[in-house]
Design brief:
The protein is an alpha/beta fold and 671 residues long. It folds into 4 domains: 81 residues, mini-chromosome maintenance (MCM) complex, chain A, domain 1; 158 residues, OB fold (Dihydrolipoamide Acetyltransferase, E2P), CATH 2.40.50.140; 329 residues, 3-Layer(aba) Sandwich (Rossmann fold), CATH 3.40.50; 66 residues, Arc Repressor Mutant, subunit A. The protein is 37% helix and 23% strand. The chain has 24 helices and 25 strands. A 5-stranded mixed barrel has the order 3-6-7-9-8. Strands 13-16-19-12-20 form a 5-stranded parallel sheet. It has a 3-stranded antiparallel sheet with strand order 23-25-24. A hairpin with a 5-residue loop joins strand 4 and strand 5. Helix 1 packs across helix 5, helix 3 crosses helix 4 and helix 19 packs across helix 20. The longest helix is centred in the last third of the chain and has 18 residues. The N and C termini lie far apart (88 Å). About 2% of the residues have low confidence.
Length: 671
């Protein structure tokens, strides 16, 4: 097929097959978007021409659209956009080769980085300095093309007098996690989009973290050597024709009528919660409460947006703290493998920018670009963070906004943006001294600030405690797996579990029934009422964040049952999980009472009362001291009179925290 024949057929296509769509595009001053299957149904040869010779095809299509009578003169070019390429034309980024150059292809991936929108010259007019002749040059490559020679013979001295410009943006697209094999590194490719694809109304499609299918022409650009010369090696990029969002989250998994029937059968099973727990990492023995909590985490609570704009997250965050070799990493990896949109990261090799987002220098566009991190890339999915304690304090601080507000705000260079990060967090941490100590608080054992700890709905300790009965069952479980590695099949396979969660997230939004509200209220008010004190600083067994956690867990329980109502049993299940956590990490060892501050800040109410006594004694004794310092022995003696026997320990704690200092040996004073 020659160019004239192609032009003729395209004129028929635009005037007969998609005339109404073209007319609307002209009226709306918008692009004409056509599905590839429509072209293929019209003429297979035209469709093949598009795939093999896209440059000529789009040149002919622009001319053909101008030749079609649309009732008015086209003031500007209508851009022809094509989507829905067959799977044979969808190429994995890692498989792009020289044979694909100058071909029309499609790639799937996640937008990792998006540059600023910048103008680019597409048509330039040069004037010869010798004779004044004007020469028009089409600008197609990366470098500005100037005339080689004028008709008058002049080879030098051309001035650009006119230019036509379009807006252009560079995207960096990387392979989606589910497309990777094992621990393979995700490959990336640059994509250039222009004209209507960079309009403000289109920008929401190209936000970092969005999963997309991009159609376009694969092209190459020269790689410069260190001396600035053109190398024989080439880099590749895609000249983007269309960007189509394809967010594959739990809600997007296709659930057939047969699947729906199976899901309803499972939900009606009275042992469904046990089945779900047994389906989480079945090769790891035990941890029933943790597995049940993780199963509820996958179903999640209901996200709510109040009329005043306040958002209450529905995602449940869980932290596992415990002994090395106890299976924390395996639990994280298995859970991340269940979610179609999930990321597994390790704290030591992860930066704050790698978790949230950052602004980076774009060498191609000579500007700044917004680059998304794991928590943004897994928006509406799950991020498993292993070795959370190994992250630096600065990097960890970037998680605060994500964990509660579920957004990432970036204000760097000249870019101000707020990205969605509606992400469920499952994290694991190791104690500083190797093994978990039940007599020390969580903040004392792991290097995580209390402001971040308080954002986890459930914190589970994982301990390796010698127990003959449990050890026997564990050994038999492990040996059985070695005898027959394939014997450990979960009650619910991954496929049906994903579809179950998908169906729930798309259809079930339960509301708290009155009986459930009464149960939660009675538990919350009753527990806090037990610890109401007088003048002393009383312990706070649970706070408002634990109340929100109870609601989320109750909603998740109702969603498992496919119920639109959170019932009494759901609330009781949530209370049991929270109580189990508090029993292990939220008990004041000196009083035996619940104290949420032991979990979140590491300082119980008993310790706060002791601190109050020591600070008061120091302040009073300083008044009678000329140099404002007090003998430590005097403080200890006065404290013992008030029944405080561990004054030395409290003084050392206050010195570490900067409340007291030692101006000279054996003396202290308040800062």
């Amino acid at each position: 097929m020659d160019y004239a024949d192609l032009l003729s057929r395209l004129e028929i296509f635009f005037s007969e097959v998609c005339y109404s769509a073209l007319l609307k595009a002209v009226q709306d001053r918008d692009a004409l978007v056509v599905d590839f299957s429509d072209i293929e149904k019209f003429d297979v040869d035209v469709a093949d021409y598009l795939l093999e010779g896209p440059d000529e095809f789009f040149k002919a299509s622009e001319e053909a659209m101008r030749n079609v009578d649309v009732g008015e003169e086209l003031e500007s070019q209508i851009h022809f956009r094509i989507k829905g390429l067959p799977e044979s034309q969808v190429v994995s980024i890692k498989n792009l080769r020289s044979k694909h150059l100058k071909k029309f292809i499609a790639v799937k991936g996640i937008i990792k980085q998006a540059s600023e929108v910048r103008p680019e010259i597409v048509l330039a007019t040069f004037e010869c300095r010798a004779c004044g002749e004007r020469i028009m040059m089409l600008q197609e490559g990366q470098d500005l093309t100037t005339p080689y020679m004028c008709e008058c013979g002049n080879k030098r001295g051309f001035d650009m007098v006119e230019r036509k410009m379009v807006d252009i943006q560079r995207l960096e697209v990387e392979e989606a996690p589910e497309a990777l094999e094992g621990s393979a590194q995700a490959r990336k490719i640059g994509v250039y989009i222009k004209n209507d694809l960079v309009d403000p109304k289109f920008q929401r499609r190209v936000v970092p973290g969005s999963k997309v299918v991009i159609t376009g022409v694969l092209d190459d650009i020269p790689i410069k050597t260190d001396k600035g010369k053109e190398s024989k090696r080439r880099d590749i990029y895609i000249d983007g024709n269309y960007v189509e969002p394809i967010e594959f989250e739990f809600e997007d998994i296709e659930v057939s009528a047969k699947d729906e029937e199976r899901i309803k059968e499972l939900a009606a099973n009275p042992k469904i919660f046990d089945l779900l727990a047994d389906s989480i990492a079945p090769s790891i023995y035990g941890y029933r409460d943790i597995k049940q909590a993780i199963s509820l985490q996958l179903f999640g609570g209901v996200r709510k947006v109040r009329p005043d704009g306040v958002v209450t997250r529905g995602d449940i965050h869980i932290l596992l703290v415990g002994d090395p070799g106890a299976g924390k990493s395996q639990l994280l990896k298995y859970t991340a493998g269940l979610a179609p949109k999930a990321r597994y990261v390790v704290g030591k090799s992860t930066s704050g920018a790698g978790l949230t987002a950052t602004v980076v220098k774009d060498e191609f566009m000579r500007g700044w670009a917004l680059e998304a991190g794991a928590l943004v890339l897994a928006n509406k999915g799950l991020v498993a963070i292993d070795e959370l304690d190994k992250m630096s304090a600065e990097d960890r601080s970037s998680m605060h906004e994500v964990a509660e507000q579920q957004t990432v705000t970036v204000s760097k260079a000249n870019i101000q943006a707020t990205l969605n990060a509606q992400t469920t967090i499952l994290a694991a941490a190791n104690p500083k001294f190797g093994r978990f100590d039940p007599y020390q608080s969580i903040p004392e054992q792991i290097d995580i600030p209390d402001t971040l700890l308080s954002r986890f709905d459930l914190t589970f300790p994982i301990r390796d405690v010698p127990d003959k009965k449990k050890d026997t069952l564990l050994v038999r479980h492990i040996l059985k797996m070695h005898e027959n590695p394939e014997v450990q099949d979960p009650p619910l396979d991954t496929e049906i579990l994903r579809k179950y969660i998908s169906y729930v997230k798309a259809n079930i939004r339960p509301k708290l029934a009155k009986p459930a509200q009464v149960v939660i209220e009675k538990f919350y008010v009753g527990l806090r009422g037990k610890y109401a004190g007088g003048d002393e600083v009383s312990s706070v067994p649970i706070g408002a964040r634990q109340l929100e956690a109870l609601v989320r867990l109750s909603e998740a329980s109702a969603r498992v049952r496919l119920s639109d109502t959170v019932k009494k049993d759901d609330a009781q299940r949530a209370i049991k999980l929270l109580t189990d956590c508090l029993m292990q990490v939220g008990i004041d060892p000196e009083t035996g009472k619940f104290d949420i501050d032991r979990l979140e800040s590491g300082t119980t109410s008993t310790q706060r009362n002791k601190i109050k006594i020591i600070l008061t004694l120091v302040s009073e004794m300083q008044k009678d001291s000329a140099d404002k310092s007090v003998l430590i022995e005097d403080i200890k003696a006065a404290a013992e009179e008030q029944g405080l026997e561990d004054a030395e320990e409290i003084i050392q704690k206050l010195k570490r925290e900067g409340e007291l200092f030692e101006p000279k040996h054996g003396h202290i004073r308040r800062v």
